[in-house]
Amino acid sequence: MAINSDVLVIGGGLAGLTSALKAAREGADVRLVSYKQSSLRHASGLVDLLGYTPDGEGPVTDPYAAMSDLHDAHPYQTVGVETVREAMSMFDEVTDYRGDHTDTNALVPTHGGTVKPTARYPTGAAAGLASDDRDVLLVGLESLVDFDAPHVAAHLEAAGVPFDVRGETIRFPGDLQADAKITRYAKLLDNNGEVAVRGRKKGARDALAERVNTIHDKEERVGFPAILGDAHTDAVRAALEEKIGADVFEVPMGPPSLPGLRLEDALFEALDESGASFETGNPVVDFDADGDTIETVYIEKNGARIPNSADQYILATGGLVGKGIESDRERVEEPIFDCHIAHGEDRYEWFSGDVFGDHSFASFGVETDETLRPLTGDDAVEFENLRAAGSVLGGYDFAAEKSGSGVSIATGYVAGENAAAEAR
Amino acid sequence: MSDAQSPTDFDPVEPNTGHDFEPVDVFPDSNDFDLRPGADSCFKCSVCDTNCPVAEVDDDFPGPKFQGPEQWRLKQTDDDYEIDDSVMSCSNCMRCDNACPSGVPLSQMHNTARGEYVENQMSKTDLEYWRNRILSNYRLSASIASKVPRLATWGMNFGPARWLMEKTMGVTKERDFPDFAPQTFREWWAERGGADASRRNAQQRREQLGLDRDADKKVAYFHGCYSNYNTVDVAKAMVHVYEHYGYEVVAPEQKCSGTPMFANGMLDDARRHAEVNVSSMSDLVDQGYDAIASCTSCSMALRQEYPELFDIDGIEKVSSNTFEAVEYLRIHEDVKEDVQESNVTGELAEEFAYHAPCHARNQGLERQSVELFRDLEGAGIEDVGESCSGISGTYGWKEEKYEKSMDIGEEMFDHMEHAEGEVGMTECPTCAMQMEHGTGYEIRHPLELLEAAIVK
Asked: Using CA atoms, how far apart are residues A172 and A194, in angstroms rounded to an integer?
């Protein structure tokens, strides 16, 4: 016996969640299993499609227009530009994101002071766009060293943004410890929890706004590191806007990231509403197949092997960072099904000597047919009921292209659609 | 060659693929709980910190990344390093384990550090030590109280006594002690005829189901302390449900799983109990039994904490053959279909506000009850969110931790109030205490609903 479903998705990142959601919306009984909690909490929460061409040209203005010039093995070419649009509209439907009014990339300031071309951004980042010419005050917090406001402001100015930007550092009211977690700030702001300011108790939102008002000099926009609440972020932002008298935005941060966590929550909520099942915490380690049909995969829990069976399987385990692809000195492999990964025999061919050079490892991953079924070295289908989506795919360098989210959403969408169609 | 030496002909600039080069295994896999590989796997992404319910309400608590890999490293470089006393503010919810992308054994590191702190740095004449020891040895208090259950229930909630307990021992007077059952599960079990009766019931049921009368369906029930002394209906439901599917149940000799002892750093006490549990369970596993727990913290202890902390003969056999009660049925029976086809009437025809215990999460069980019962006719179930309940066993019973415990629980209380139902549901006995304490709702266990749905 086993835990059964029509479609089993392995992986809880953007690709896995999108494929599970699409398959469930197509009427399949879907189960998603993820080794650990979603990798989205490591992500900035920005959703990019294509920021730069593979040759490093950019920032790209219209990612859809640039997609058709990509090489044939690129996942966007496999699924087709129109499908990317369809997939993005499903994403827009289940999230509260901005940027869907245009095909053009938005330019969003980052916590390093760079400007990132991205197709979608959280509502909380909307007032911060670099294409907006209103002046900006960036507010840093002494106890939060990951966001150095004066440094970010100087960087943005050097990048030539069309507005005046000033960075100031304040103490978060209540004098939190220097290593207070982002969730601590978020919780205090979510609940407007009491903090002590010069011996008097105040709500955290009010106290923060009062401190900002002492340094605020009529800038129409005020930016904060992304700590403005978790469950009630819209209310936190609205309260600050009212008390400061300016538009308030968040600058996306590195891991761990609240915008990433909020996106994770939104997608799991959508998945729950679609009727799918999911669990996290333990890895898929093995499988049984009958010829080229996968019959069962096994989740390992402290030595116990829990069998999970489905008609169709989706591999969305991530790339080299997410451990969906692993390597040692001899070879590069996909650890669950051992799907073929093309790579040079000599590991010194896997990278370039130049740090920011053209590393071939960056595009390592499974190659697929047009329905996203992984292929063997001889271009035969590995398993007739297995599809791959997201960073486990080869043929693109998401870090250089800024295409990671879009490829995950588009290929997840197609894998989910095809799996659901086959399962019927 | 020592790992401190470099191979002489190795030029990092030139590829050396033509040469023989045997990489040295610097940190070999080890069975003696070497935590170094875990510490080295941490790349400081800090994602574990976002899962910590204590750090969310208390910025004085430095969080799991510090308690685990960072503190471990500090210990290696300084012989006089003392474990930071903040380790006692970790509630051992173990949520950090599920966040780590590198598989760092955070809770193992915390348990180890806490054990060391209690062993070497906590005064054994200190009241806190004895308070913690008494709280974590709940089984002992409960076994005495269960001799006079009514008197004990009354006495433990007698105002002046509770005032005194708070003043002298630091046990909060805010909480109500749970009721002791008039008859323990084991007394009921013995009266019912023990394992022999269960075998007869199972055989009879197999015949009804058209199965082989002597089919190899047998489980060893780890009921734990709470369903023995307090929520006896949960244990009875487990027996009824399993017999319904044709399983014969045995209730072997057992002690506390050790969960409260781990959380209080009382590793010697935990080991003594674990030795009894492992010994009786491993014998049964050898005979073809699987170990089943109805409390998710008990199953967590047997599955994960035992092999991570103790080296006892048979311990891995036990951990790899231990399952949570409903999980086991999901694997081996068509329980989902059976629930979909059944309905509930009577006392349990309710809307339930369900809370997933932290210890259920790492076992991948946080959605199990919601997904199983969402199609059940006559009853409804609603997940009240991701928040920890905040009580974490003995943690919320400590006078100095009570406020923190309630701060953590606030989000759950709030979601419970907003949920449609006014009856709570969870697998964990102490989460149930906290849910009841914060909302006044009655709290039930999924096995009770499963019993009402399918055992007619």
From this structure: 13
